[in-house]
Design a protein that fits this description.
By secondary structure, the chain is α/β, with parallel strands linked by helices. It is about 35% helix and about 20% strand. It folds into 2 domains: about 180 residues, Rossmann fold (3-Layer(aba) Sandwich); about 90 residues, Pantoate--beta-alanine Ligase, Chain: A,domain 2. It is built from 8 helices and 9 strands. Helix 3 links the parallel strand 3 and strand 4. The longest helix is centred in the middle third of the chain and has 16 residues. It is globular and about 60 Å long. It starts with a strand and ends with a strand.
Length: about 290
């Protein structure tokens, strides 16, 4: 069964009539194969999947692409219907709020801030971004009454921030992170990839190729033995102003790697023209 709901009142009425386990896939729409992989994972594990389609104003900075962010609700619904058709006896609810007031009622003033975890990587040059993310995700958790939520590894910092919020606030929801979905050339799928010209897309491949090189080095050596080579790559890479950051952090805490670290995240942000792209690799390590 496929159903589209546009008001909070109607969603609350649906909840009154249903008591099934729910998987939640929060999105801003303009869906691609990466989103659909999350939806299919939820459909496989839950009798009901709620996909939210909401371009969240609170996570965009004043000079970012909120106004121009692609809004393709009709096409998104068709993709979701195709995904649902692969499963029997499942329900898929699309919650696409007809206005911001459905998420943030008039007078809404609360923000959820996770702290130091949000001040690095993407948070370093996007102040307030993660407060907007955690606030909307908390709202969507409560509105959806979901048992599980599905996110992609591409936004790894976001996943870890939301995990921290879930733990700190004792939220009764499980978070599932799925691997990064990639195009054939290795570029991580993103709704913003459509902004890239052919030449810009070729430039953008610098991001995954650099992460692949660093992953290879770290996979073949201990952390201490690979440090000099990795630091050299980072220093020479960041000379290129297209790079916004390139860092290696403890994957669990998003802090500096130490002797207790067993897994790291190699994370990078790369801007081509007006398009900012992010990517990462998770690597198990031996410290020494």
């Amino acid at each position: 069964m496929f159903k589209q709901i546009t008001t909070l009142t109607d969603l609350m009425q649906w909840h009154q009539d249903n008591a099934l386990e729910i998987g939640l896939v929060p999105t801003m729409g303009n869906l691609h194969a990466g989103h659909i992989s999350l939806v299919k994972a939820s459909l496989a594990q839950n009798p009901v999947t709620i996909v939210t389609i909401f371009v969240n104003p609170k996570q965009f900075g004043p000079n970012e692409d909120f106004d121009s962010y692609p809004r393709t609700l009709e096409a998104d619904c068709e993709l979701l219907k195709e995904a649902l058709a692969e499963f029997e006896n499942k329900q898929l609810i699309v919650y696409s709020p007809k206005s911001n007031d459905e998420i943030y009622p008039k007078g809404f003033q609360t923000a959820i801030s996770v702290g130091s975890m949000t001040e690095k990587l993407c948070g370093a040059d996007r102040p307030g971004h993660f407060d907007g993310v955690t606030t909307v995700v908390y709202r969507l958790f409560k509105i959806s009454r979901a048992n599980r939520a599905y996110f992609g590894q591409k936004d790894f910092q976001q996943v870890q921030v939301i995990r921290r919020m879930i733990k700190d606030l004792d939220l009764e929801i499980d978070l599932e992170m799925l691997p990064i979905s990639r195009d054939n050339d290795g570029l991580a799928r993103s709704s913003r990839n459509q902004y890239l010209s052919e030449d810009e897309r070729a430039q953008a491949l610098t991001l995954p190729r650099t992460l692949d090189l660093m992953t290879k080095i770290l996979s073949e050596n201990s952390w201490l033995n690979s440090g000099v080579e990795l630091n050299k790559i980072i220093e020479t890479t960041l000379v290129d102003s297209r790079w916004k950051y390139l860092e290696i952090l403890d994957a669990n805490l998003l802090e500096e790697v130490n002797e207790n670290t067993s897994e790291v995240v190699i994370a990078g942000a790369f801007k081509v023209g007006k398009t900012r792209l992010i990517d990462n690799r998770l690597v198990k390590i031996n410290y020494a």
